[in-house]
Amino acid sequence: MKTVLIIDDEEKLRTLLSRIIKSEGFEVIEAADCKTGLKKLEQYDINTVLCDVKLPDGNGVELIEKIKTKSPQTEIIVMTAYGNIADGVQSIKNGAFDYLVKGDDNEKIIPLLYRSIEKSQLQKRVKELEKRVGEKFSFDSIIGKSKAIQQAIELAKKVAPNDTPVLLTGETGTGKEVFAQAIHQASSRACKNFVAINCSTFSKDILESELFGYKQGAFTGANKDKKGFIEEANEGTLFLDEIGEIPLDLQAKLLRVLETKEFMKLGDTKSYKSDFRLIAATNKDLKKESEEQHFRSDLYFRLNVFEIHLPPLRERVKDIEALTNYFVRHFSAKTNRKNVIISSSFLEKLEACQWAGNIRELKNVIERSVILSEGDILTPEVLPFEMQQASTNSGKAVSAFSLASIEKLHIQKVLNYTKGNKAETARLLEIGIATLYRKLEEYNF
User: Fold this and answer.
1) pLDDT at 135
2) What domains appear along the chain, each with residue ranges and CATH number?
3) Minimal CB count within 10 Å: which of 173, 259, 289, 348?
4) 31-55, pLDDT tens digit by residue?
5) How confident is the model at residue 75 (pLDDT cuts 50, 70, 90)?
6) Least confident of 58-62, 192-196, 272-276
7) Is this model's pTM higher than 0.85 or not?
């Protein structure tokens, strides 16, 4: 509902305005003075305040700042007396949407209300979206209670409010971009751009043009000027993922940008400035790379002001259950599945894996498992074959070369072939159903 608050001490005028505004389908709240108006503002979700300048307990022009402090997305239209245009001008300077002259601008009230309410609703939607983005990329969104991940989170929280460069290290798939987003959201630059680029996905020439931008005609195909990621990140955060893949000659240019905050576009002779906060990530040992002259040592020391190492998933096994629950809920919603349950045997097999691809690999496995499962329970039958060798059997791993391992894998393949139909599986294996159940229990399916 679109809601208008009228603040005016003249009851007859309030009643008349209320009747006119209600006829347009708006909800109207009334107040006779500043104090009551501010209370109504706390009680209701007000889009626009229609306020007189002269009130019994204050001045409407001065009231604007108080309203904006309490409710920044609420718009204010001030009603001035004839000849007091200066009040209207001062109202706009104080943050009012517009002003009206009582008696002369009656026909302007409704069109002005529509415009002010439209602006208010847009601002509220933007605020809600900013809130959702902030929640999605906040530190609270990082899943895990293990000591290793909590230590990384605490370090990130401490450095986030500063403009200090951050180097995120760790294996592929450990969540480096998630951490970079969280650091950005907790910084003073949260309302500005977060610009991310994976340096390993571009050739040297393309990476240079993407980073620095270019002028029209700089090279074949440059049909118009283009901003680079460095320029786009001005006042925000630039996240360079896999920074260890940047070619040596391009590293020198990047180092200059970090030191001077100045850069030059391809094909241009003019320098540009960009005030950005840098967060870099790598799965390489940059210290070793610099010692072997594969990475510039001066750039490494410039980047390595504050390093945060993200632990691999195999070092935070306790977090696998929470991560699995999150991904199961996510992919269940995407596939319109309800009440999908994770069996204990399914979870045990996940916890026994080494996860070379870390959280990214776990996410892919859960997505595949949700799609393949036909019932409401996720069982080991939907896991990839290779994961079965890493599964536990009475607390001990089954040797890949043992007879039991071969039998176990064969049963798993037949179960997958029959889509979990145990009676059909027993028939194809040419064993009794009771024997099959005994084997399933023995191998912890």
Assistant:
1) 60
2) 3-133 (3.40.50.2300), 139-309 (3.40.50.300), 314-442 (1.10.8.60)
3) 259
4) 999 999 999 999 999 999 999 988 9
5) very high
6) 58-62
7) no
Residue type, 196: A
